[in-house]
Amino acid sequence: MGSAPPHDTLLPLDPETFAAESRSVIDFLGGYYRDVESYPVRPPDAEPGRLRTLLPDAPPEHGDPVDVILEDVRRHIVPGLTHWQSPNFFAYYPMNASTAGFAGEMLSTGLNVVPFVWAASPAATELEGVVVDWMCKLVGLPDRFLFSGGGGGVLHGSTCEAVVCTLAAARDRALSRLGHDAILRMVVYASDQSHSTFQKGARIIGIPPSNFRVIPTSAASGYGLAVDSLCSVVDADVASGLVPLYLCGTVGTTGLGAVDPVRQLGEVARRYGMWLHVDAAYAGSSLICPEFRDCIDGAELADSVSMNPHKWFLTNMDCCCLWVASPAMLTSALSSNPEYLNGVSQEGAEVVDYKDWQIALSRPFRAMKLWVVLRRYGAAGMRAYIRRHVEMAEWFERTVRADRRFEVVVPRRFSLVTFRLRPRYEGDQEVDALNRKLLVAVNASGRAFMTHFVVDSKFVIRMAVGGAMTQMRHVRDAWELVKEKAKEVGALPSDFMDMQ
Predict the structure, then answer these.
(1) Which candidate among 65, 97, 161, 239 keeps its CA 20 to 30 Å from the CA of 354?
(2) Residues sharing a CB contact under 8 Å with residue 293, sequence separation 6 or more, in sequence order
(3) CA gap 170, 245 in Å, rounded
(4) How far is the CA of 356 from the CAs of 27, 153, 204, 304, 327, in angstroms?
(5) Same domain, 62 and 129
(6) Under a CB-based contact definition with an 8 Å cutoff, are residues 198 and 249 in contact?
(7) Looking at the DSSP assignment, which residues form a beta bridge with residue 320?
(8) Structural domain range at position 218
(9) Averaged over 139-153, what is the pLDDT?
(10) Dihedral angle of Cα 90, 91, 93, 96, to the nearest 10 degrees
(11) Which of 291, 318, 307, 283 lies closest to 413, judged by CA?
């Protein structure tokens, strides 16, 4: 027998090597998840540029074995990560992973097809149509967003992409009616709680920054977008000769989890000829539970809706569902027909070419991982998963309220609790500084990670429950940590005796 070929001449996709090295990676990740709870949630000694001091200045001339690479990941990469899959991660919003999500990701990555047009991978395109319809039904959207109802859906990488695409569709719909020069008169509306991606998206599609309206919210409306405030701004714009173009409604805002009144916003949008987009990136997952369906009441008046299964639906990054009531509006703004694709599409057939539903041409096989998650856990399993997190957040909220040192700033929405140390006395000017110290102390411990928000000039702490590995004991431990650090920063129970 001849000797084995030099390492550099091995086939890069040899089936035997693929199987062996993939097992090594799976074993590595299995160990990571077994140990993840032992890591500080955020790296305690992270410094900008640290990784450059640990890695060579140039790539190797000859390749390294996978076990050597994985050892470098263990020694140099893992210690510098913020561990989003830690059961003690309560920051931002969850970014779920799961065994089924990983299996789906492996299948997607392993098959590595590129379904930009139907003919490029028919089953991948058709599976995407199936799963977005499944999700549409599961979250309770009206039939007008189903392919069979004249609408349809697509899987994007993020809400940001979905927003840019729907803004472009709304713009082109208006331009066809008003002429090209009208873009300088178009106005986009959102609340002061809406995600910043809407302002970025408006700039990208050519809306002047001065034509973006941020409508203030208040505690009286639960920090949802008040229709009276919106209408007064829209009326003033119309009187000034401007064109209301696009209205953003949110179900589960980033800072507070607030919910905008979708039905009322839909009525306003129709009155003024605006495109209504409903952003349910985080809270959309909860809509699979009937008790949360009222949050999306009025969705039949929307032009588009989006939600992110990669947030709270056990689907590994990245995966965003976008549904539109009129696919033709989207594709007319985004379609292109380069010569190298002529003759590739299925002539005369009712097929979807997803390249015309997004910004890029190429796209991954995202439908596979969402399909595997749905198949593996089922609707009942996913509802139970969401409800467990909500129950944990309910316990945390009740417990915070029972401690005289703390206050819940905004009533819990979904699995998000916003709280803070309350003022120790009337006119306490140090309360924000004290809460900042508390959050820094909690995060510096490495035992949990939370983030903050500012509402009505108050610094508040956000506790977002939703990790795939998070159990009730982790939420209880987080509360014990908060109390411990509150004492360390000087928030003693005796200081709050008059606040009961």
Answers:
(1) 97
(2) 140, 287
(3) 7
(4) 39, 12, 18, 16, 10
(5) no
(6) no
(7) 156
(8) 113-364
(9) 97
(10) -60
(11) 283
